Amino acid sequence: MPCRSFPVRMIQKRFKMVGVIAFVVLLLFGFYQVLPFADSSRPPRPADPIAQANQITQANNLGTPVSASDTLEEEIKMIEAKIRNIEQGKKSYPEVKFLTYKDRKRILITGGAGFVGSHLVDRLMMQGHEVTVVDNFFTGRKRNVEHWIGHENFELLHHDIVNPLYIEVDQIYHLASPASPPNYMYNPIKTLKTNTLGTINMLGLAKRVRARLLLASTSEVYGDPELHPQNEDYWGHVNPIGPRACYDEGKRVAETMCYAYEKQENVEVRVARIFNTFGPRMHMNDGRVVSNFILQALQNESITVYGEGEQTRSFQYVSDLVDGLMALMNSNYSQPVNLGNPEEHTIIEFARIILSLVGGDSKIIKKTAMEDDPQRRKPDIGRAMKYLGWHPKVPLMVGLNKTIEYFQNELRRSRHSERNFHMPDMLEL
């Protein structure tokens, strides 16, 4: 037994000796660090390497010593200058009205990156509401609303409403749908799905969150009317299998869905039957009368009129339409309402007006009439005047001049950096 325990005792003694030696070495090293001659052979090391570099640079350039406080002050000035440069490039927004939580609404606009939708976005944002735009960019464009991207009250969702959407909102402006003949004829199935499945999805959302929904319907529900002017009690004269049926019948069934949800599910609905509208941000090649004529006149091309040009249209400026949509949404009236300008012009007359405003050498030529093209179109706005106190205010010539100016700026663009942002009327300084 004594022979077995001897190695253990020896090992313990050796560990103690090693510990004592290590302690003594550390103690001596500590004394060496506090002695005055310890660091005499090396210069003091500044806390900040950048400050050290600045000290050396300034000393070399000026031939004079630079204190650490002076160096720090210079660094702070450099940082402040950089911050100012960054802030100059920071995106700025128009000053919007502040609303308390009791007055501020969460508003969804489907198709909000489109022509009419973007102007509605501007108006609601300026009023201080929280606006969410949903668009699949089939005809809408991001640059129509780019001036609001990043604002705390604005959100842009790339989404197709043919698929369900789950968000919290107080009001829904359902504007999503191709609206010009070339666009909705290009993909009639998509047009039908947007106006049927998309409308069902939006009505379902309105039901779940108890929101009020406004449907942007159209004067096309009247088809080629046999009644003139058209009032809201007229049922229409529509070809259900014609080339325009995907849009005409799509909007008619969308109206039917709205009133079915109102009756069965108590959803609050509003229906606006919109007549021809024009203004800045119109797509230049959307095939509508105004955009076609202005673009052709600006490029000195022949102005094409289909048929004899004796068919009539009524044109309203986009800001008037936005006024009407908002008045209808916030009213207590739930039946369909016409929103349009009752000032009626023939197509050939309108072509001559555009030509006189633009100038140039364009000629008016006639082509074969389009199938199912309505011959007369004029709204009866008695209901809008009675229940909304609404009527169009912008004169035709004023609106046309603003639209022509926008198209001229658009044609001048040769690169993305050359912005053609139309400052809406309520944002003009």
Automatic annotation (TrEMBL):
Its main location: Golgi. Pathway: Nucleotide-sugar biosynthesis; UDP-alpha-D-xylose biosynthesis; UDP-alpha-D-xylose from UDP-alpha-D-glucuronate: step 1/1. GO terms for molecular function: NAD+ binding; UDP-glucuronate decarboxylase activity. InterPro entries: NAD(P)-bd_dom, NAD(P)-bd_dom_sf, UXS-like. The keyword Chaperone does not apply. It is an enzyme of class 4 (lyase). Keywords: Decarboxylase, Glycoprotein, Golgi apparatus, Lyase, Membrane, NAD, Signal-anchor, Transmembrane, Transmembrane helix. GO terms for cellular component: Golgi cisterna membrane. It is found in: Golgi apparatus, Golgi stack membrane. It catalyses: UDP-alpha-D-glucuronate + H(+) = UDP-alpha-D-xylose + CO2. It holds the Pfam family GDP_Man_Dehyd. It is a single-pass type II membrane protein. Its cofactor is NAD(+). Belongs to the NAD(P)-dependent epimerase/dehydratase family. UDP-glucuronic acid decarboxylase subfamily. This is UDP-glucuronic acid decarboxylase 1. It comes from Biomphalaria glabrata.
